[in-house]
Amino acid sequence: MNACADEAAVAARTSPPRIVTERGQREVFCGLTGIIWLHRKLQDAFFLVVGSRTCAHLIQSAAGVMIFAEPRFATAIIGERDLAGLADANAELDRVVSELLARRPDTRLLFLVGSCPSEVIKLDLSRAAQRLSRQFMPRVRVLNYSGSGIETTFTQGEDACLAALVNELPELAAAAPKSLLIVGTLADVIEDQFRRLFAALGIERVDFLPPRRATELPAVGANTRFLLAQPFLADTARALEARGARRIAAPFPLGVEGTTLWFEAAAREWQIDAAHAHSVTAAASERAARALERHRPRLAGKSIFFFPDSQLEVPLARFLARELSMRLIEVGTPYLHREHLAEELALLPAATQITEGQHVDRQLDRCRAAQPDLAVCGLGLANPLEAEGIVTKWSIEFVFTPIQGYEQAADLAELCARPLIRQSLLAV
Amino acid sequence: MQLTVWTYEGPPHVGAMRIATAMRDVHYVLHAPQGDTYADLLFTMIERRGARPPVTYTTFQARDLGGDTAELFKQAAREAYERFQPRALLVGASCTAELIQDDPGGLAQGLGLPIPIIPLELPAYQRKENWGASETFYRLVRTLAGANDPSPGAARPKREGGGRPSCNLLGPSALGFRHRDDVQEITALLDRLGVNVAVVAPMGATCADIARLGEADFNVVLYPEIAATAAQWLHRTFAQPIVSTVPIGVGATRDFIAEIARVAGIDPTVELSGSPSRLSWYSRSVDSTYLTGKRVFIFGDATHVVAAARVAADELGFSIAGLGTYSRELAREVRAAAAARNVEALITDDYLEVEARIAQLQPELVLGTQMERHIAKRLGIPCAVISAPVHVQDFPARHSPQMGWEGANNLFDTWVHPLMMGLEEHLLTMFRGDTEFTDTAPSHLGAASAHSAPEDVAPSSSTTAWTAEAERELHKIPFFVRGKARRNTERFAATRAIATITVDTLYDAKAHFGR
Q: Quick check: pTM over 0.95?
């Protein structure tokens, strides 16, 4: 597999991806949407959006059905009177937070989440968080980050949240042994799988950010090495580096190849013998490869078009192209972090077309002209494209579904195969 | 600042989108950041529309704020016109853009586009979705139909002799609760009465249709939340009478027909003869005896709540335990409907307040929105949805109107089916000792309700103790009425300062509250 990766790297050097930046209407969620999965992960945290009715409506609409009686998120809706005077807005915020914490005494960590309106009226949520922290510590820690759509796109909300959390991590003692931090929300089941594999490799000290509980914040310092589990964590990585931690460059753990390269990068950092590393991952990797084969006939040779959404597009495209032989027509991504994605870009087929940013109408024109076998897009575009005869896969499912690691590689393939299977089944 | 968990209505620009999306040839240029594009999925996912809403968002970013967001807006408006070739352009701002005060109306007018520009001022920090829809529809009507207004004092031209009277159906919009089916039902009913529907608006209307609204003999307002303001303007401008009875339920449909007949000068006898709706007979049939006095709580938009209260009380024989609305604009009408049923209206958009009221009242049926469906599910109370906010299942594949005769049939089916019915309830009571009817036995109320039956939450509010024997007796009562029995007994004990509830107290309370 490494030989294969090297070949691709050569190809990428001779015919690197063509990256075009586009500006225009963007059809993407804002960073507030991240709350939907972050609040499931951090079980003692509460997310209070300080925003408008639009923000509240967005979160409940993006979450689909309202399945929670008392979800661990809410919106403090800014009213006209709050706009009239910021001093009052701060007093109002304090009142709302007191009300909330009285209702939800189980909260240990409260995030004040900034929105477009709170940013525009320059409501200083970091000062509010400090003020409220003083009031409610040690019972509740209050932090803030921005999920505003003028600053963050969809998954960047998680980045902003984790970056805020990094500042709160305890200091790892200088004399502490080297420890590994996995950064980016993963399903609990995947964390457990990864823990087992790291333990088998011989990496003993492994922490995850975000942790499952706010009271279990991992320590960070100069002896921290971190692996990104998600490709959208630019600010978090920068904050960790500011704390002395060092990033281990690797592709992302999507697909068999991505997962193997990801573990191997950690193994190299720990100077673990390559043969041992191979013996640890071999069984899971072979099992995953066998499971993937079932989906190959359905996907091989099929063309795929990515609309920008989660920043997962480049690693997904790499997986689908290299492990399932799909043809990449266009890989749209809201933002391309060239450093964090360097290993991914090197693995892409020669001259892959990448579009950073969006002009949704022109992109739709290109998609219609290309008539891909499968278009990966957001919920606003899916049914309209289906109505035009283009089979789609909702990109949001890649964020909500466990897809990382060996045991999920076939699930990821299945997510892409299912719309095509369905299309072949229907005779109406 | 208001702490909000879930919200009944979106912001007002979503109301504007519901109007634009309902129509065929308008386009809405919305000055808004990228996150606001989520609103597209309301239409493409919930309503399963096969086309994107006709909305262009400027999606300005933080870096644009220091620069020229106004230029961004102008470019978006120009491009939208060129690409979509609409016959009228709605322009406005969402909550964030309202704060940066770029004046989309002025900017769009400055572009010199050869179509009407309709600026929308929708104050996002004061108003909500239905108000936004109403205001947008009013502005559209005023701009497009206003171009054809008669000279002051001119009499309405007489209809050609022998021609059928005509009316407009106003209010049906995108993302409306059963609007699609109501329009079909009411159009057919009017046709049978001999009345033509000239224009349905905004649903399916073109700008040219809006321009000729003034030609019809009168207007029918199906959804006052959306169309009352526009209809009043049409009344003032074109002297068009307004038919304002909302034909939901048998009685209201009869009233509606009578009002149409009066306004149109036609004879309704044929349409009113016989039993046009099955609801009347179904409700009188013996099986429905068991519906008598079922305590029902009603919540939703004003139109559907007022109509549901009448149907529930007068046509199904339920007893109204409480009702309310999130439509503050029509609070007066809902308060009047509540007063007529001797209950106090709950006027709120706070979902937690609604939940508390339902928990307190312990009704046997909830008629509400998707929010109340969730509340009822948690409390183990049967529920039927009667109003927006909508969910994907509120757009059924089948024809499922709320209005007219067929609408009344639908109300009977959808409200009664969640309940234990007739012989079913009777037999359950008779055989309640059977192992099949224990708490853990399967129930068609769903697995969750049997385990989180209301009795599990009720005792926390009471300090009254139960003897072990009384508790055992309580558990012989079927789970779906046990919560009410417990609550009534405790209330009975509390008012009589009984500290410990015995089997006798339980039956004393039953005798006291029994109907």
A: no
